[in-house]
Design a protein that fits this description.
The protein has helices at 24-41, 45-51, 56-64, 82-95, 97-117, 120-132, 243-277, 289-318, 323-347, 359-369, 376-388; strands spanning 73-74, 77-78, 137-140, 156-160, 163-174, 181-187, 192-198, 204-208, 220-231, 279-280, 283-284. Helices cover 50% and strands 15% of the residues. It is α+β, with helices and mostly antiparallel strands.
Length: 394
């Protein structure tokens, strides 16, 4: 016998009752991070964005909450599921992409390679302090002339006596000027290797990149390595080649495919609220057909993006998620979020370009999110290779 449809009107934000797909523990984690963002980020983020600052005490608070390396086990890390990490990223990026980026860099790009490829001594030395937020890290892969083509990097590492000497320049490095330690990828005579570089090492310097119109609440830097001498045990012993940095990027991409949904949701919620309050021609603009079409498209994008993210999160936890599927999620959800942000910006009219509303801030940030951890074009080629079996990167 056919079941009756559920009575009542669906939630305008969680239209598909996606919350029902989450366990009580997952919802509790999600709600805890949502409250943190509401209390510690939302009241100040427009000022941080306008001033181009990110208070280090917020990072310490995120460490206290257990957000750094939360999907890793041991060494002071929370050991939560991949899906729970993704849900945290959704809420953090609903606050601002810079906040989620901070957590992604710390946990996925710095802690993860130490956890996955480091020695036991390296793990014991660095991971507990990073998990607590007492030690801040950055990830040095991109160079002025080496972006998507990471294999063409010019930073070098040569053995000298019982140690290493590094020379080169890294560019667009999140947290670079405030980091205590950097994971630096360099070419050696036999292969690409990763190095743990304390930022107070002689020869290491950083410069903050200014005049940004995106991710302004994130510290972005250039790293310069001028005859930086490191001990022999500074190298990550258990990985060689591009597998090392690319596996880290996949970790970060996983967080992004969740985080982008948070940014899109914030834009949609702002547009929905505004459309019911803003009156033109004697009625709220939400009463106009064109406005409703825009709102519906935004709602569908946010709900579809969240369903995709949860599906990929479950696959990650059961061990069946591929790198190509991560690219699918990152590419699709960031593109969706940009579409939602741009539509919301237009719906808000002139108010859409002010920091009184979150929309223009998210829209600008998402332009960077679309580029880092693999550009839209690179992910297209990854998916193209996956479905044809033919690489077209060169």
């Amino acid at each position: 016998m056919a079941q009756r449809l559920k009575p009542g009107r669906p939630d305008p934000v969680d239209f598909l009752d996606i919350d029902d797909l989450l366990t009580g523990e997952e919802r509790l984690l999600r709600d805890t991070v949502r409250r943190f963002v509401a209390d510690r980020v939302a009241p100040h983020i427009s000022h941080w964005f306008e001033e181009g600052t990110f208070p280090i005490e917020v990072a310490r608070a995120m460490g206290e909450l257990g957000l750094f390396g939360m999907h890793l086990k041991g060494y002071g890390c929370a050991g939560m599921s991949a899906l729970m990490y993704g849900l945290a990223c959704t809420e953090l990026e609903a606050g601002d992409s810079a906040v989620r980026s901070f957590v992604s860099v710390q946990g996925s790009l710095v802690m993860y390679p130490i956890w996955e490829f480091g020695s036991e001594e390296q793990k014991q030395k660095w991971l507990p302090g990073m998990a607590s937020g007492e030690i801040i890290g950055c990830f040095g892969l991109t160079e002025p002339d080496s972006g998507s083509d990471a294999g063409s990097m010019r930073t070098t590492a040569r053995q000298d006596g019982d140690g290493w000497v590094l020379n080169g320049t890294k560019m667009w490095i999140t947290n670079g000027s405030i980091a205590d330690v950097a994971i630096v990828w360099a070419t050696t005579p036999d292969d690409i290797r990763g190095f743990i570089v304390p930022t107070d090492t002689p020869g290491f310097s950083s410069t903050t990149i200014g005049q940004k119109l995106s991710l302004r609440a994130s510290v972005t830097s250039e790293l310069i390595l001028d005859d930086v001498r490191l001990p022999h045990d500074a190298v990550l012993p258990n990985v060689k080649g591009l597998k090392g940095p690319l596996s880290c990027l996949n970790e970060a991409r996983f967080g992004i495919l969740f985080g982008a949904v948070g940014a899109a949701r914030a834009c949609y919620e702002s547009a929905l609220s505004y459309s019911k309050e803003r009156e033109q021609f004697g009625k709220p603009i939400a009463a106009f057909q064109l406005t409703q079409r825009k709102l519906v498209e935004m709602m569908i994008g946010v709900n579809s993006g969240m369903l995709l993210a949860i599906h990929l999160g479950r696959k990650r936890d059961e061990g069946s998620l591929s790198a190509e599927q991560v690219s699918y999620g990152k590419m699709t959800n960031v593109r969706m979020a940009l579409d939602v942000a741009r539509e919301a910006r237009g719906l808000l009219g002139a108010n859409g370009i002010t920091l009184e509303y979150p929309v223009i801030r998210h829209m600008n940030n998402l332009e960077s999110v679309s580029t880092y951890e693999g550009t839209n074009e690179i992910h297209t080629l990854i998916l193209g290779q996956a479905i044809t079996g033919i690489a077209a990167f060169e």
